[in-house]
Amino acid sequence: MAIAKAERLMNLALCLLGARRPLSKRELRGSIEAYVEAFRPGPGGTSGEDAFNRMFERDKDDLRELGLVIETVENLDGETGYLARRDSNRLPPITLDAEEAAALGLAAKVWQQARLAGAASGALQKLRAAGMPEAEDAYDDRPSALEPRIPVHEAAFEPLMLACRDRRPVVFDYRKGNAARSETRQVEPWTLECWRGHWYLAGWDRDRGAERVFRLSRITGRVRSRAGAFTAPVPDVVTVRAAVESWAGETATRTARIRLRAGSAYPLRSKATAVTEGADGWDELEIPYGHGLDAWLVEFGPDVVVLEPADLRADVMERLRAVAKG
After folding, report:
1. How far apart are CA 24 and CA 63, in angstroms?
2. Which residues 6+ apart lie within 8 Å of 190 measured at CB?
3. Whether the bond into 309 is cis, omega within 30 of 0
């Protein structure tokens, strides 16, 4: 569906840009194959004028949001026509200095592990062809000591990214950290954010009637799109990181004492308020204890042993048993 819409929008944009005079909705409906197929009489199509008008208005609004300048002109007969003049939609000359070019190059490298790598690389080549200066790098022939990456291994990333962009509800199966089975979630996706090497989705959980944050690696199966508009307002600012931190022990109210295998779990060590090195290959740490710390500790498996408090130890053991059961 996303591909079909993108193709329809592209055809509409090309038609408006290529026209020498304003085109009416009637002319556009008969010229663009996607409209002809969708609204042809008989099986597989509909001849409804209202349905076409709604689709055309949505497509026109989408093109304008993407930056296309579409003029509305009324002819002598009172019929409304549409035109996208080339001079109004021509990009100004690209003037980037070396530092700006380096920043764009760095941004393109960030996506090398995602399916966006091709698009990022292609965009960079087009900018360079248009006059963007090459970023000077004295170590261009050597591997960089510090190479930026945003790892994207989850199959759910791309469909969720498109759903966030298009404001499209989705359905997927999700397994919580302490659950043995997945549950179906109906979500209105807002935004994606990477935190501590993991991708998270923030959105409105329709079944629970509340904002929720989902870790993409716990989504099982395929992300399915659903028709219809969002039922809950999208916040102006979606603080995914703050929500994840509140579920990962960052908003701590107590202190936990754990044993940690030497040389392991550096994210935990960075949060420690006190560290006592042991002679048996295990260190003892004191770390802030807040809601969700048990889920974070489970990720480090056999490298972590909870000493106290007892309720945290019990929660971690319960989660490990659930994982063991599959």
Report:
1. 17
2. 164, 201, 202, 203, 204, 234, 235, 238
3. yes
pLDDT of residue 107: 63
Per-block mean pLDDT, blocks of 10 residues, the chain (326 long): 72 85 87 79 60 88 84 80 80 68 65 55 59 50 48 79 90 80 92 78 91 88 90 79 59 82 83 88 87 77 90 86 74
How much is the pLDDT for 249?
A: 45
- Which residues on neighbouring strands pair with residue 199, listed in sequence order? 194
Report field, pTM of the whole predicted structure over 0.85 = no
Query: Sheet of 282-289: strands edge to edge?
Result: 274-276, 282-289, 254-261, 304-308
The CB density around residue 321, as the number of other CB atoms within 10 Å, is 11
Amino acid in position 299: E
Amino acid letter for position 33: E
Own/partner contacts of 203-207, CB < 8 Å, gap of 24 or more, are: 204/230, 204/231, 204/232, 206/169, 206/231
The answer to whether the Cα torsion of 51, 53, 59, 65 is positive or negative is negative
| Residue-level pLDDT at 139 | 37
Cβ contact 32:11 at 8 Å: yes
User: Cα separations (Å) of 161 from 12, 165, 200, 229?
Assistant: 24, 6, 11, 17
Nearest 5°: the CA angle 287, 311, 194 is: 50
* The pair of three-digit structure tokens given for residue 156, joined into one six-digit string: 């759910």
**Predicted local distance difference test score (pLDDT) of residue 182:** 87
Closest by Cα among 45, 44, 12 to 31: 12
Per-residue pLDDT, 209: 92
